[in-house]
């Protein structure tokens, strides 16, 4: 039996640290990760996480695919995948997914998850939202995607940005529904 396999898409929205945190969580679970990084995400990773961030991200995953490689295995529904997380998900990527515009491997892999009725978790990043953003979120949700803006779980009283990022990444992995939950849970006061 092979390990579970998940696609991690990284688009150019702010929040590049989320991609590294999701990759670390999936790696710690023994998951095979197929990585697709948009050209804009390459820039954001370097600006927000440092010059070596893309290399660090690639070290955490099983396979890396170029966005132009629309013939990669993850572009086919016949390849067994447990789901996909796009972290972060830009409004451009959201729009392409919501319209079925499979113009690169990242959006094609997302489309495959939807057509195969597999989990697609989109950590959408933008604020404030326009009506176009909201309509694209609605369309993607109606097709089966989970829209998961990276909003902190303030009730857990995080002490650092790293704790916030790790919790959001854990929630995204939990949303795949393929593994035992790893995110911290709210506990009612005693």
Automatic annotation (TrEMBL):
Binding site for dimethylallyl phosphate: 155, 171
Reactions performed catalytically: dimethylallyl phosphate + FMNH2 = prenylated FMNH2 + phosphate
InterPro entries per record: Flavin_trans-like, Flavoprotein, UbiX-like
Keyword Transferase: yes
Occurrences of domain Flavoprotein (ranges): 5-172
Binding sites annotated in the UniProt record for FMN: 12-14, 38, 90-93, 125
Transmembrane residue ranges: none
Enzyme Commission designation: 2.5.1.129
Keywords recorded for this protein, A-Z: Flavoprotein, FMN, Prenyltransferase, Transferase
Gene3D superfamilies linked to this entry: Flavin prenyltransferase-like (3.40.50.1950)
Root EC class: transferase
Annotated NCBIfam families: PRK06029.1, ubiX_pad
Family: Belongs to the UbiX/PAD1 family.
Function per UniProt: Flavin prenyltransferase that catalyzes the synthesis of the prenylated FMN cofactor (prenyl-FMN) for 4-hydroxy-3-polyprenylbenzoic acid decarboxylase UbiD. The prenyltransferase is metal-independent and links a dimethylallyl moiety from dimethylallyl monophosphate (DMAP) to the flavin N5 and C6 atoms of FMN.
Name this polypeptide is given: Flavin prenyltransferase UbiX
Organism for this UniProt entry: Ruegeria haliotis
